[in-house]
Structures are given as structure tokens and as C-alpha cells.
Amino acid sequence: METVQEKRFRVQNLDCAACAAKIERELQNTEGVEAAVVDFANLTLHLRAADISKALAAVARIEPDVKIESTLQGSKADDHESTEAGNFRKQVGIIVIAGIIFAIHLFFEDQLHQRPWAWVEYPIVIAAYLLAGWSVLIGALRTLRRGQFFDENVLMVIATTGAMAIHALSEAVGVMLFFKVGELLQDMAVSKSRRSVRGLLAARPNRALLKTEGGLKETTPEKVKVGEIILVKPGEKVALDGTVIEGVSQVDTSPLTGEPVPVQTRPGDTVLAGSINAASALTVRVTKPFEASSIARVLELVESAAARKAATEKFITTFARYYTPVVVAIAAAIALVPPLLINDAQFSTWIYRALVLLVISCPCALVVSIPLGYFGGIGRASRSGILIKGSMFIDALSKVKTVVFDKTGTLTRGVFTVDRVVTDNGFSSDQLLQMAAAVELHSDHPIGKSIVEAMKSKGLTIDESLVSDHVAIPGKGVKAVFDGKSIAVGNDALLHERQIDHGQCDFDSTVAHVVVDDQYAGYILIGDQLKPDAKLAVERLRSDGVSKLVMLTGDNACAAASVAKALNLDQFYAELLPEDKVRIFEQILAETKEDGKVAFVGDGINDAPVLARADVGVAMGALGSDAAIETADVVLMTDAPAKMAEAVSLAKHTRRIVWQNIALAFSVKGVFIFLGVVGMATMWEAVFADMGTALLALLNATRALRESYD
């Protein structure tokens, strides 16, 4: 069985969105290719195939001029941009010369129609036409040689040569000239957007100062190995994930989180690649290779997002494939049928109307601006520390009507402190705390850690050799043997399961009951605080049209009710085991399936089954967490609930931009198809409408990249 590989490549010499769609379509029909996505907005090719080289050979066959190379980085990308700038200046120069020649023709047009100068008109017109449209003519010939007839270059050549045939010389040259001007302006807009997106990815460090026996050595992050030591100077980016072994500084994590809040860093603290050392030099021991670092994972995720297309993108690509042939067929019918059926109808009149339709038939306004709008939204989100794994999830987020939150660490801080120790049956508070801490000594659970910290703060200690037989009881607590006594620490469900007599069941905060040799010893009340922006997050979600807010928690019902009341949530479910969360979430999905999408917000590790089941799984506080990045559809790099509200707002805004472009393109093209058929539109107006629509749509699409959603 062949191994399927997944790779991403940079694409060069691809200046046509329709060509990108054609390459994608042909690749998807190529044997051995499981998936292929050509992202015209970012000039990348995403391939998943058993034989990558065979797939790349297919690209060369489909579009011989298109060049495929490994993902550009560093100076290569700069060289590519320099080449693009040089080509642009050359094209502008040629168009200026063609424009001057065309202006001369327009100025002397009346004289050139008179003898003996009539013969001079054609050399002037042809010179201007060839200068302006040489690249269009070459592109059309290449397309025809491959047996294809609905390329925008072919249609433009047919329209302009047809205009010459009916002696509409000025319009033929003018349409070609302004078509090229429009193309250049369109390329400018797309290139500007691409540079903005690349700017988002500028957090990628491109050098590392490696400490060696011979001193400092500058190298690339990819060449540094785990365990080696690097120096990060003030003002420089941290090159790789690692642990600080020397130095105290302030580190800016905004390239990863979108939040410009410096973090105090000391020896023993973790620093992440892509963050910026703002103060003093740091010596860091590398803990991950660069390809596994936080910044590499983030950049990979952002650049790969185009591979998950929204249904709207897929529809537009399919629509464009059939739209142009249909308009061409209508144009052919208009050129031929009326002169044959209507008395006194002239072929030249109806041919001219058909040529107007050919000019307006290019779907570029749609096939360029819509992917660019989605990618702009994804890029803008990543700048704010919100990683959206594809445009399909932007659509899903924009339709979210129900948001289900985990409680601990999502709506609350998850930093527990022991508030009160209540004893029973003759045990002292120190005894209770010490026995509970012994059972929780090796626990990773925040509640267990808080109990251990509370014991230490009172100066109490534990002889670890006296602790044995530690067993976790899923969803209920833990038990162990300490100093010969069987001790269990857990929730109310644990007491009822073991039939332990106790007084109170309901508490307004998190409670840990302690049982010693099947005798109730008392309880420990543990406090947790709401996150500062939790209430703001709820308010903003409601203002963005989210109609139902639910909380799931394993905590007791009273503590859950207190949080739900403080945040004005619609529902909460408490005392849930992990499997209960999945069951309740399935129930919520069933109840709301007719009322929009359902999102779940959790930590991406403990809640993985629910995240996977949600229409949109959102992992919060994922900075440095590989598991969270892998599990969720949307990753919030910080632990702020308000980021969820921002993600929904951003998705809705991006979706509005996409539909504005669809409405603009369809309405303008529909109007001009009608005007062209009834003879009320000229070729000049058609080309202005076509290119103008494309430019307006592109400029509108870039709003998704630029605008803030605070």
C-alpha cells in the first residue's frame, strides 16, 4: 500500500484565478491524488497524494507556464517579490506607450478616415493593440493549443478582433488597453493583500544565536537541536521553544496571542518561539525542534487554512466553470439568430451586442475576491491570537446560535485556593488537610494541587514513603493508603457510592469530602474566581446573535448555579463525568439542530470528545499546547473567553463581506448582460463594469484583513 504524503508548495506565474480553479479541478481528477487545493489568494498548492512527483508533473501538463517550488522563506520570498515588482514596472511602461499611440489615434481619428491617410489608421491601431494585448494574445494561443475555449484571454481576443472585423477599431484597442490596465490594478490589489498576509507571518524567526565552545554562532532555527543552548538578545525574536536557564526579562507574546502584554520571565520559565525579548538577554535551553515549536505550528495552521474551503467558495468555483460557457452560448445566439429571423436586422449590430456579452463574461470578480475575503478574515484572526483552521469554520462560526462552555479554566480562572476546612468525627483541621494532601500529592488536577499548596502554607509536611496504593476514581475523586489508613477524597457522588453518612450535600463552591477508613472526616471548601472578561464575553455573544449559552461542569450543582447566575447563562449541567458531557452535548445538538450551529469552548485536552463532536470546537488557552491545536477547529491562544466573542464577530463580518461581493458581481454582470442584449451597453462600458466590479470586490475583500473587531 502506497504511503500518502501531504505537502504544500509555492506557485509562480499564476496570474489567473480561473486557471487556479482549473489546476485544482484537474489535479483532483488525477489518479493517486487524494486532495488538491490551489489557493490563488496566497499562491500556494496544498497536495495530498501517493505520488507527489506525478501530481506536480500533472500541473506542468495542465499549465506549462506555472512553476511549482517548495514553500518560500526568507530571502527567496524577497527575491520573488522583487521579480514581481520588476515585471509590474515593465508592464506599466508598455501600457503607457500603447496608451500614447492610442491617444494619437483618437486625436487624429477623423483625419485618418479621409483619403489619402486612411491606410495609416490600421498600422497605428495594430501597434497599440499588440503592445497592450501581446500577453493576452500569447495566453489565448496557449489556451487554444490545449483545446480549451473559455479562458478570459480567449474571450477578450475574440471580442476585440470581432470589433475590428466590424470596423470598431477604437473600441477594440480601448477595450484591450483598459482590460490590461484593469488586470494590472487587480494584480496590485491582490499583491498588496498577499504582502499583508505575509506580514502576519513575519513572526517567524529566521536566525538563532547558538552557544558553542568557540563562542556564539549564528545559524537558522531549523539547524538547532533539542538540548542546545541559544542566546536571545534584547529586541530579538525567540528562535525556538525552550527553558530559560539564565537572565530575567520581559517577553512580548503578542505575535502568538495578539495581546501586547509583556510577561515576566525568569530562570526555569518557558519561552516560546516567535515571542520577542523586550528587555535583557536570555540564555535558553531548546526543548523542541523548530518544526515542532509554537510559532511553526501556528504558521503551518494559518497557511494550511486555505485547504479547508467553505461551501460558498466551492460553489463559486463550480459556478464559474459553467457560467462563462453559458454566456458565450448566449452571445453566439445573439450574434446569429436575430439577423436570421428579424427583417432588416444587421449582422454588425447583433455581433456588436454579442461582443459586449463576451467582455462581461469573465467571472474574476467572484473567483478572486471571495477566497481573498475568507483568507483575509483568517489572517486578521491570527493577528488577534485566534487560529481558524479554514474558511469552512468561518461559515460555521457565523451561524453559531448556541455556545456551550466548560466551566473550570474556561469561564473561571481555574486557580483554586482552599477557603475553609470543616472537620467531623473528632478529626482536627491540620489532620484533615494533611491526609487529603497525602492522597492528592501526585495529582495533576488543579483542586488536588490547591490542597497540597494549602498544607505546605501551614508548614505541614508528608513522608511520601507512607503513601501507597494511589487510585484515581474517574469523575468522583481519588483514594490512597496513608500511614496505614485508607483515605478517599472526592465529591458528593463518591460519598453516596460508598454509602458514607454525611450532613450537607449542597455547597456554593467546589468541595472535596474526606473519608478515612470509611468514616466521614469532614470537607474542604475550595474557591475559584470568574475570569475578568467572562461576563463581557457573554454580553458580546448575545449582541452577536447567539441565543443560547450553556455550561457543562463536573463541579457540584450549587457551585455551578452560582457561576451560571453571575453570568446570566441560559442553562447549566453539573456533576458530569467525562462521558456525561458527551451525552449531554449530544442532547443539546439534537434540541438545537434546527436553530443554527453549536460551538463548544473547552481546554482542548480533557474535553477532546466534545470538541470533536461540536459543529465548531474551540480550544481556549492553547498557547504552547500541541494537543489543543490538534483537536479543535478554532484555537484561542489566550485563556480569555472574550476571544470567543471576537471570533464570532469576525466570522460574521467576513461572511458579510463575501456575500457583498457575490451580490455586487451578480448584480453588475446581470445588468450588463441585459443591457448588452437590448443594445444599451457599449464594449467600453462593459470592460469598465467588468474590471471595476473586480477591483471593488477586491478592495472590499481586503477589509476582512484590515479591520478590527474589538
UniProtKB/TrEMBL annotation:
One GO MF term: ATP hydrolysis activity
Primary enzyme class: translocase
Signal peptide stretch: none
InterPro entries xref list: ATPase_P-typ_cyto_dom_N, ATPase_P-typ_P_site, ATPase_P-typ_TM_dom_sf, ATPase_P-typ_transduc_dom_A_sf, ATPase_P-type_domA, Cation_Transport_ATPase_IB, HAD-like_sf, HAD_sf
EC number, as in UniProt: 7.2.2.12
All residue ranges annotated as the HMA domain in the record: 5-67
GO CC terms of this entry: plasma membrane
A Pfam family it matches: E1-E2_ATPase
Localisation per UniProt entry: Cell membrane
Catalytic reaction list: Zn(2+)(in) + ATP + H2O = Zn(2+)(out) + ADP + phosphate + H(+)
Membrane topology, record value: Multi-pass membrane protein
Alphabetic keyword roster: ATP-binding, Cell membrane, Membrane, Metal-binding, Nucleotide-binding, Phosphoprotein, Translocase, Transmembrane, Transmembrane helix
Record-annotated membrane-spanning stretches: 91-108, 120-142, 322-342, 354-375, 662-681
NCBIfam families, alphabetized: ATPase-IB2_Cd, ATPase-IB_hvy, ATPase_P-type
Family, per entry: Belongs to the cation transport ATPase (P-type) (TC 3.A.3) family. Type IB subfamily.
Protein name, as recorded: P-type Zn(2+) transporter
Lineage per the UniProt record: Bacteria, Pseudomonadati, Thermodesulfobacteriota, Desulfobulbia, Desulfobulbales
